[in-house]
Amino acid sequence: MFQPAAPNVALIASREKTAVGDMRAFLATIKPQSPSEALRLLRKAYPEAPLSLRVAACGLSDMRAA
Fold this sequence. Notes:
Blueprint: H1 6-30, H2 35-45, H3 51-58, H4 60-65
Helix pairs in contact: 1-3, 2-3
């Protein structure tokens, strides 16, 4: 039986949102002084997370759009 990929995509997007939220909460407790420090901390705390999620958690992807 073939199942559409949409439910899987929605699940992945939901997990990514949760991961970014968790990373932002982590950064809020530490209060890094710079984006580079934040990325370094996230790399150590979440080594399995892709760079794109760590950048999103730092808010750097939002700055590029502005």
